[in-house]
Amino acid sequence: MSLKSIQTEVDASYLYQQLANHETDETVAHVYRQMSEIERGHAEIFCRKENLTLASVMKPSWRARTLNTIGKIFGYDYVLGSLMDTERSISNAVINAKVIHKMELTGAETNHVKVLRSILEKQSKSAGAYISKFEKRHRSIGGNAIRAAVLGGNDGLVSNFSLVMGVAGATAGESGVLLTGLAGMLAGALSMSLGEWISVKSSQELYENQMEVEMEELENNPEGERRELALIYIAKGIPEAQAHAMAADIMKDTTHAHEVLVKEELGINPDELKGSAAEAAIYSFILFSIGAIIPVIPFFFSAGFKAILFSVALSAIGLFVIGAAITLFTGKNVWYSGLRQVLFGLAAAAITYGIGSLIGVSMS
Fold first, then answer.
1. Distance CA 319, CA 343 (A)
2. What does the alpha-carbon distance between residue 179 and residue 173 come to, in Å, rounded to a whole number?
3. Does residue 165 contact residue 352 with C-beta atoms inside 8 Å?
4. Are residues 270 and 281 in the same domain?
5. Theoretical Cys-Cys bridge with 281: which of 65, 197, 203, 253, CB 3.0 to 4.6 Å?
6. What is the Rg, in whole angstroms, of the alpha carbon atoms belonging to the chain?
7. Over the stretch 296-335, which tens digit does the pLDDT of each residue have?
8. How far is CA 241 from the centre of its chain?
9. Do 61 and 68 touch, CB atoms closer than 8 A?
10. Beta carbons of 299 and 307 less than 8 angstroms apart
11. Rounded Cα distance, 354 and 347, in Å
């Protein structure tokens, strides 16, 4: 077990404890505290294998402290989203490793979201509404807004940096670069914004149409829907008699029956339809613009080769910051991830700059 793996357990314990400290629902807070204890226990076991004391590695990493700071500013739902993504990644890696080495899967490899659910179910006060509340909270952050922000800024920076360098190569940075950069930023942001709006809106309309059809089927053929629901429960391993009894009980309330059928038969979570397409479009526009304006800034105050150098330097810093920010989700080394991002970004810009220079020479 490497020090990096031990640090991952330490960070998870720290973040679960922070979630518990800032959770107003005592039942959910209790879940977080238990998860923190579980992760701490893992860290202690791994430390003993490496002949280390937990005190020597118990300090949370910069990644964990940064996520906690984000939680203080924007809310701890963001921290939970990132933490759950990390848990899923770790469990998937363990499963893949066992499959490769032909080791038996015991079920213990599954992610801690399932562990959280099992802990909730064991609490006398946490059945039904509490479980639903917890799962709804987790689903609401499934898209992970922090990840979207980082990737949105990266799209804007890389695409507009390449565009600016291409025009700068053709004109030696003397004319049209500022206008092109601003036009590229606006065009890219509008395109991303419209794409996001269409994506969210079309998904909502598709789901709403499916839900309407399901309601019509429920009203016109309730017996058929009851049998379908019973078959779904039977397929899940519920005894046939019990499955039919459950389905019959659910069908007594049409509204409730519709909600259950939408979830069980169509796999649609109605809470996901409440997202605003306009809000998603606005966020996409802003995040792309933040990244795209970085390579343009020097051309507001300067021109020529000097402005090109400043643009490259500023963009390289932005690329490194984005690469470092990505490690919040991947857990990779900051310098490796940051420098890799800089390398790829500069390579793309160098290619467009070279093409632009060739075009500029041929036009001359």
1. 9
2. 12
3. yes
4. no
5. 197
6. 26
7. 999 998 888 899 999 999 999 999 998 888 777 666 778 8
8. 41
9. no
10. yes
11. 11
Choose between 108 and 191: higher pLDDT. 191
- Please list the alpha-helical segments (H only) found in the chain: 3-21, 26-49, 54-57, 62-74, 77-100, 112-122, 129-140, 145-171, 177-220, 222-235, 240-250, 254-264, 277-293, 298-301, 304-330, 334-363
**Model pTM score:** 0.60
Quote the CA–CA distance of 145 and 289 in Å, as a whole number.
Answer: 16
More confident residue, 295 or 64: 295
- Rounded distance, CA 38 to CA 33, Å? 9
Tell me phi and psi for residue 23, to 5 degrees.
-95, 125
Check whether residue 181 and residue 223 sit in a common domain: no
Q: Name the residue with tokens 């959280």.
A: 116
Give the whole-angstrom CA distance, residue 314 versus residue 320. 10
Same domain, 40 and 173: no
Residue 141 corresponds to which tokens in the numbers above? 């952050």
Interhelix angle 3-21/77-100, rounded to 10 degrees, is 150
Q: Which domain holds residue 164?
A: 145-197+277-363
pLDDT tens sequence across 113-123 = 555 455 444 44
3-state SS, residue 252: coil
Q: Which residue has 């990266």 as its token pair?
A: 154
How many C-beta neighbours within 10 Å does residue 77 have? Answer: 16
Domain match, 208 and 330 both: no
Tokens of 258: 């519709």
Our count of domains for the chain comes to 3
